[in-house]
Amino acid sequence: MLDLILPLECGGCGAAGTRWCAACASALTVAADQPHLVTPRQDPGVPVFALGRYAGARRAAIVALKERRRTDLAPPLAAALGVGIHHLLGWGLVTLPLVLVPAPTRRSSARRRGGDPVLRLATAAVADHPRITVAPVLRMRATARDSVGLDSRGRERNVAGRVRLTRRAPRPAEVLVVDDIVTTGSTARESVRVLQTAGARVTGVLTLAHA
């Protein structure tokens, strides 16, 4: 009866009868050599890592979480993010104690989405790790517009000077900026710049996907 009222649909492929099918779960599996180093067009000055391409089940799940409020997709995405962080620690690319700083979003976008999805994912990814904390200290100013459809130069202009600190930057622990997608790298670069200007020791950026 519940399926008739609210039909279950896989958030990755749309298959009926399940919220997250085995095939899509496999597509989010983090391999031993992931995340990979990527090179966005706008260099943030620190290494940028991504867990996969912004395509297929990964893309569909991210879009559904952000735009359709499919909060049931947060656990598999957060689990992938958590494994990625674990690998970076294991490779010695980040060290403990570690602070995750979610990339900034506009207040209007967060309200429309029922909260900040990147903050939700970061918090769930490290919920059981005593030496990793999440600090949502960045916010996008209201004057920034939605970046969908903007080219590289447009994205750069859109975020330039529009990322602000909402409270003191985390110190002295290492900081890893986390986001769902990196496209041109404009948001990552501005986020890193603001944090470093405030004295934070930013060692990298980690995203679920790169476009």
Features:
alpha/beta, Rossmann fold, six-stranded mixed β-sheet, two-stranded antiparallel ribbon, PRTase-like
Q: Given the helix and strand composition, which structural class is it?
A: alpha/beta
Give start-end ranges of low-pLDDT stretches.
none
Largest sheet: 6 strands, mixed
The side-by-side strand order for the widest beta sheet comes to: 1-2-8-7-3-4
Number of strands: 8
Structure overview:
The protein is an alpha/beta fold and 211 residues long. It has a single domain (29-210), classed as Rossmann fold. It has eight helices and eight strands, in the order ααββααβααββαββαβ. The strands form two sheets. Strands 1-2-8-7-3-4 form a six-stranded mixed β-sheet, sandwiched between helices. Strands 5-6 form a two-stranded antiparallel sheet. α4 crosses α6 (117-125). The longest helix has 17 residues, at 74-90. The mean pLDDT is 90.
